[in-house]
Structures are given as C-alpha cells and as structure tokens.
Amino acid sequence: MTDRMNWFPGHMRKAMNELKDRMKLIDVLIEVCDARIPLSSRNPELRRIIEGKTRIVVLNKSDLSDPEQNRLWEAYFLGKGTPAISIDSVHRKGLQQIRSIAEDKCAGILQKARDKGRIGRPIRAMVVGIPNSGKSTLINSLCNRKLAVTGDMPGVTRHFQWARTESGMELMDMPGVLWPNLGKPRDRLCLALTGAIRSDVTDLVSVSSLGMSLIHSLYPQFIENRYGITIPPGPYDEREYYEPFMSAARKKGCILSAGRVDEERFARLFIDDFQSGRIGRVSLEHAPRFNTKEDIK
Ligand SMILES: Nc1nc2c(ncn2[C@@H]2O[C@H](COP(=O)(O)OP(=O)(O)O)[C@@H](O)[C@H]2O)c(=O)[nH]1
Ligand SMILES: [Mg+2]
Q1: pLDDT tens per residue across span 152-188
Q2: C-alpha distances in angstroms, 292 versus 70, 71, 79?
C-alpha cells in the first residue's frame, strides 16, 4: 500500500465513488471555491474523477475578495481551459453567467438531444465544493427557494431529486461535498481563516496572529487602519507578529481583570472581522501572473 493510500480515508473514497456515479447523470459540474483562496479551497482529487466533464469554476464570496485578484484568477483559470466566474451568491451577482457559460459549453449535448427530438432538454448540473464555500447559498439563490438541509459530511448518502433553477437548468438536489486541499501549513491557515475548517480553541490565537501577519504582508494598510495601530516594517515571522496582535487586542479592549490581554477573545473578534469583510476585501492567495502563453500549463 502506498503512503497516499494510507492517508486517504475510507469515507473520502466512498464520497468520491458516489460522486463519480452521479457524474454520469450530469452535463456540467459547477465547482464552488472561495474567491479569497481559489487554490486551497479546491479539491486535489477532483480532477481524477471528472474525466472530460465540462466544469465551471465559480469564485464565490467575490464580494469579500480583492476585485483585481478576482479578475486575475478568472484569467488564470481560463488560461488553463476552465471558465471561471466571480460571483456573490448572497446578493445573486454573476449567477446569470453560470447559465450562459453552461449553455455555451453544453451546446453539443443539447444539439444531439434536439436531433433525437428532445426539444428543450434542460442542462443538468451538480454543485460541488468544500464545506462553507457557499454551495447551499448558491443553490438556494439559483433556485430561488430554501432547500432542505443537506448533509455536509462527505459520504452522506440520500436520494436526490432534480431541482430547477429559475433559468431552467436542473441541479442535482444534493451538493457534492469535497474536502479541501490540506497541503501546506499556509493552506491550512487560509482554510481556518475563511472558516472552511474549524480551528479548536488552542489554535485560535495562532490562526489569527498568523492571519494578521499574512494579511499585513499582502495589504499593508488594512490591519493598521482597522485596529488603529502602527506596525513597524517587517518581515515578520510567526513569533514576532505576536506584538502587533497584542497591540490590536489592547486597542480593542480585550483585557482580562488582571490587566492581561484576553488573547482568545481578540482572536475570535479578529476572525469575525476578517470573515465579515470588515478588514477590507482580502485575497489570501494571489494569482500567478503569466507572461507568455508558454507559462500556462
Ligand atoms: N459574503 C458572502 N457570503 C457568502 C457567500 N456565499 C455564501 N456565503 C456565506 O458563507 C457561509 C457558508 O455558506 P453555505 O452556503 O452554508 O456553504 P456550504 O457549506 O458550501 O453549503 C454562510 O454564512 C453564507 O451566508 C457570498 O457569495 N458572499
Ligand atoms: Mg451546505
């Protein structure tokens, strides 16, 4: 048995097999990722099972991410042959484009159906993505209704039905849940900051102080502006960034009775500030810039 098989747990394999079976029933896969972390919010195993299936990447929560990065990421995915659209599922922005790209990409399938006399055959799609990427919100917005609560755990099986979107597509009424790319520590940090994976209490302080450091390195003014502190020029490593974290906590009044900083309270506050967009529109992963076509692989 290879190392890879050892870490690939049974329930994930089961979920993948299930997804593979259902893939046969659909024309297009709508892969929801978090626009703030387009790489680590995607599933590394997905490519193996989609086998030439048309895929649309949606960069959801693009209202929270850097608008310039949204454009660069769209170009990045397009350069790799996958259409990508920045959307905001809560405010229903960009949703019509999903339909028009799906129509464009499925033109051949629809023509074949017409040739066989099946006029008006709807496009069938399935929404997949890691937890908290916004699948349920997207499906609800596309269908203009509240769906029954679906299992968010990989491997949850239940009968599905087709749900009609307002524009006449058919969605598999069960979002496929993928698990995130937990590759490097930085990926895990991004996933914890955006809420895709839960951080336990002991982790909170390091997630938020490292998160502050990362945001500060990408958007130098954002942390200073939000917390009214001055941060001397870096670079910072994990330990050194603790000071700005403590200053911001003090500024926010996160103090215990003995005058000690309430690190945990501030950590929660910071993560909430970030997740609600109060720090600013932040893309934690920036798109690689291509110079020539040869760079795009
Ligand atoms: N700001 C913003 N929040 C979103 C968007 N889409 C989903 N959310 C929020 O993200 C959280 C997770 O969404 P949900 O649909 O339950 O994700 P799921 O686990 O993939 O089904 C919820 O609090 C949603 O309100 C979006 O486009 N913008
Ligand atoms: Mg859901």
Answers
A1: 444 444 566 788 998 889 998 777 788 888 888 999 9
A2: 20, 18, 11
Within 8 A by CB and 6+ apart from 17, the residues are: none
pTM: 0.90
Identify the residue whose C-alpha is closest to ligand 1 atom 19.
132
Structural domains of the chain, with CATH: 3-181 (3.40.50.300), 199-275 (1.10.1580.10)
| Pocket lining: 176 vs ligand 1, CB cutoff 6 Å | no
Ligand with an atom nearest the CA of residue 88: 1
Query: What would the pLDDT profile of 93-121 be if each residue is shown by its tens digit?
Result: 999 999 999 999 999 999 999 999 998 89
Ligand 1 centroid – CA 47 distance (Å): 24
Q: Is 38 in the pocket of ligand 1 (CB under 6 A)?
A: no
pLDDT for the residue 78: 96
Q: Which of 95, 128, 132, 197 to mutate to test the pocket of ligand 1 (most atoms within 8 A of CB)?
A: 132
Report the SS3 class of residue 85: strand
pLDDT band at 4 (very low <50, low <70, confident <90, very high): very low
State the CB neighbour count (10 A cutoff) for residue 220.
Answer: 13
Confidence at 295, pLDDT banded by 50, 70, 90: very low
- The torsion angles phi and psi of 57, rounded to 5 degrees, stand at -90, 125
CA of 85 relative to ligand 1 center, distance in Å: 16
Q: Could you identify the atom of ligand 1 that is nearest to the CA of residue 139?
A: 15
* Ligand nearest to C-alpha 139: 1
Strand segments (E) across 8-123: 28-34, 54-60, 84-86
Dist. CA 164–CA 191, nearest whole Å:
31
